[in-house]
Amino acid sequence: MSILDPSGPAAHAQFRVWWAMLAVSVAVSLVLFSLWLYTFRRRPQPRRTAWQEQRIMLRWVLGGGVLLPVVSIVALLLLGAPTGRGMLPLPLPGGEEVELIEVVGHQWWWEVRYPGDEDQNDVVTANHLVMPAGEPVDFRLISADVIHAFWIPRLGGKRDMVPGRHSTIRLEADAPGVFGAQCAEFCGAQHTNMLLQVEAVERDEFDAWLAERRTPPEQVEDHDQAREAFGEHCASCHRVEGLPDEFAVGGREYDMEGPDLSDIGSRPTLGAGVLPMEEGAIAYWLQHHQTLKPGNRMPPHDHIDIETLENIGAWLETLEP
């Protein structure tokens, strides 16, 4: 999560700008402190006319109050503008296509969408972003409720996500790796617990990861009761790819108030980083989610017996590509 450990072109450029700003700030501070200490030195005061005093004042006002800020701002723009431009979704030389990933901010979780085409369905997951390494990726950013901010510190600068608008930021990972990401704009009580795990992989591995998720997961036997309970209690807000219509209440469409759960068994965490994904974690989350992440939009399940919640959790853990 440190900007001082860059792992992409945009992050490296910001790293250089940060060190340049720090160096200039330290130099200016040293000069100002030196002048401040110099004023305490006892020395004979020269006799000056009012015109001479006014000229000295004008030099300080124009030099320190006008010239220094103008030079500093222009220098910062010259140094920083190319850094910002490198994160714009501009056409690549040769007209190469850039991978597009949609990221939707919710209170307080991340929806990640990989758009398909006429022959392929969209791939939808949550709180886990997989991207190809060694090539630029455009992230289309959307907010479903309040202002959020998408920020992967080791890959580049943050971008606000404003309701009703979308923006795009281009980032790249130099090599495969796992990076932390965080909502960087206060968005409510659980803002701190709105984490996103970003995994950069080789292109072949990325294509295989997508292909696996474009195929509906096979439904494991012996979980019919859990699927029925899911359809009764959960399907109005959550979606599972390939779930038969009879398990959804009235066969209605999913409203997607909550995360898509089609591949939840393969995700590294639950609740946007609150719990590690391990055996029994989903059932524990279903029973205690308002304690683990107070204020989240999933209602308490006090009306559902523990055995049913455990059955639902056990079934959801089997949902892997």
TrEMBL record:
Membrane topology type: Multi-pass membrane protein
Family classification: Belongs to the cytochrome c oxidase subunit 2 family.
NCBIfam families found in the cross-reference section: CoxB
SUPFAM superfamilies, per database record: Cupredoxins, Cytochrome c
Location of the protein in the cell: Membrane
Catalytic activity of the protein: 4 Fe(II)-[cytochrome c] + O2 + 8 H(+)(in) = 4 Fe(III)-[cytochrome c] + 2 H2O + 4 H(+)(out)
Known role: Subunits I and II form the functional core of the enzyme complex. Electrons originating in cytochrome c are transferred via heme a and Cu(A) to the binuclear center formed by heme a3 and Cu(B).
Keywords from the UniProt entry: Copper, Electron transport, Heme, Iron, Membrane, Metal-binding, Respiratory chain, Transmembrane, Transmembrane helix, Transport
GO molecular function per UniProt: copper ion binding; cytochrome-c oxidase activity; heme binding; oxidoreductase activity
Protein name: Cytochrome aa3 subunit 2
Organism: Billgrantia endophytica
Domain Cytochrome oxidase subunit II copper A binding: 96-212
Domain Cytochrome c: 221-320
Lineage start: Bacteria, Pseudomonadati, Pseudomonadota, Gammaproteobacteria, Oceanospirillales
Spans traversing the lipid bilayer: 17-39, 60-81
One Pfam family it belongs to: COX2
Cellular component terms (Gene Ontology): membrane
One of the GO BP terms on file: ATP synthesis coupled electron transport
